[in-house]
Amino acid sequence: MEENHKFSHPHNNEKALSVAIILNFIVSLIEIIGGIWSGSLALLSDALHNLGDTTSLFISLFSLRLSLKEETPQRTYGYRRAEVLGAFVNSLLIFATLGYIFIEAIQRLFSPRAIETHILLEIAIIGLLGNLFSVFLLFPGSRESLNLRSSFWHLLVDTFSSLAVIIGALLIKHWGWFFIDPLLSIGLSILLLRGSWKMFKEVVNILMQGAPPHLNLEKLKKALETLPGVKNIHHLHVWSLNEKEHFAEFHVTTTCSSWEEIDQLREEIQKILFEDFRIEHSTIQFENKGCKNQDFIVKEK
Length: 301
Description:
The protein is α+β, with helices and mostly antiparallel strands. The protein has helices at about 10-40, 40-65, 80-110, 115-140, 145-175, 180-205, 215-225, 260-275, and strands at about 230-240, 245-255, 280-290, 295-300.
């Protein structure tokens, strides 16, 4: 069965990632030069964040390309889970980046330094515009792909970081409030950590073959047991290959006594799985002691 959701074409996501990588690297170089020139530790920190995010974007691009490879006899599901692995690595990099921002912010609270605010403002605005453009590039794909979502969050971290640098520079320039920049960094780090943690839990749930968040197993079981011919559902397992493909396997104790009845019941079960629970792939074992003690096994790819 094919689901009718409109997902972005993988090659469009690939182009968006490629452009974001080039743009992010250029912004990083500009911020390094500007940070050294202005004496701004905040801008140098932001440049390091951008360089780290360039690495994460490379990971996402590599994972995306790997996921498009065909199935092999050794990897019967192909490489479609590669994007989930890429998202897992990127999630860890996000936590490391946020931790670095937090530590640097604490240090700057106690050790403020004089900076050239006009240079800082000009470079920070360039960084903000570059990050915003990259964020808009990846936003469409981030709604459907954990891999792109992780890269999107990386760039969102950098966007808010650049914004904090700009706000801090303006306040320092006009009022000399050196403590504002680290305070903004701490607040944004805590805010972005919440969204990153939610994504990280989703990735781990897939890798641990947990049930999809949208699915209630008890509700699924009851829905199937209301069908005529079903006595009970047991040995029920549901998991995800990635954020879009969900699988189920279970045993059905049935009162059906012929292959025709079994086949009709199978179609009804798979219709409910697909339409009500977004499960496209199922392996079902039918058990009927009244039919010569035989088990009927039906598998749908």
